[in-house]
Amino acid sequence: PLDDEVLEDDDDYNMPWDLTLTDVKNDMELMLLDVSLNLIDGDGVHYLTMFMKQCNTLTSLDVSNNNIGDEVVQELLYAFEKPGKQFMDAGTHDDDASGRGSMNDQMLHNFSVTNLNIGGNNFAWESMEALVKVIKNNAVISRLCIDVIGGEVTPQLLDPVFSAIKLYNPHIDIFCVNENPISVKNVENIAKM
């Protein structure tokens, strides 16, 4: 325990919001990071995403049960999505309209994580689309857990996820979807994976 020190929500952690990847030096050889059940907010995910983009030794990440919202889940998932051709051809620019940072920051992605647990957070349509892109473009992830995802998830939103695994990513050998709204059609898609 800390020496009777109580951290408040408004404490200054000396990390400016406009911090970029070039400002962060990562010389850690961390392989497993479990930050589940920590009430991580958007600021925390922003810094975690920057760390993940530079940590090529990290093989397991658990950010489950943090009540992370839809936009923040998307930012986290972008760290695993392979950059598209438009990023490669565009050169470098300052922050773009998407709020994802400079082109250099966007081109760095984590391809070392094989175990990803993002369950227990608030997904909606945009997060599910980002998850489908990750499944299509990241052949490294072999264990994916999206247990008990809240938000606006319906069986119809899960269908593209099952289809993406079946069609694009045979490397996923463990897929957890416990306590989600699953329909008979979802079960049919799971059986076809």
Describe the structure.
- The chain is an alpha/beta fold and 193 residues long.
- It has 7 helices and 7 strands.
- 36% of the residues lie in helices and 10% in strands.
- The protein has a 5-stranded parallel β-sheet, with no helix packed on it. A two-stranded parallel sheet has the order 4-6.
- β1, α1 and β2 (60-62) form a beta-alpha-beta unit.
- α1 (42-54) packs parallel to α2 (70-78), α2 (70-78) packs parallel to α5 and α6 runs parallel beside α7 (184-192).
- The protein is globular.
- 30% of the residues are buried.
Q: List the strand order in the largest sheet.
A: 1-2-3-5-7
Termini separation comes to 46 Å
What is the strand content? Answer: 5-15%
CA radius of gyration is: 17 Å
Instruction: Please give the number of β-strands.
Output: 7
| Secondary-structure class | alpha/beta
Low-confidence stretches: 86-107
Largest sheet: 5 strands, parallel
Question: Order of SSEs, N→C?
Answer: EHEHHHEEHEEHEH
Percent of residues in helices? 25-40%
* Number of helical elements: 7
Net shape = globular
Question: Overall pLDDT, averaged?
Answer: 76
Write the layout of secondary structure elements.
Layout: E1 32-34, H1 42-54, E2 60-62, H2 70-78, H3 85-90, H4 103-107, E3 115-117, E4 122-123, H5 125-137, E5 143-145, E6 150-151, H6 155-168, E7 174-176, H7 184-192
Parallel strand pairs: 1-2, 2-3, 3-5, 4-6, 5-7
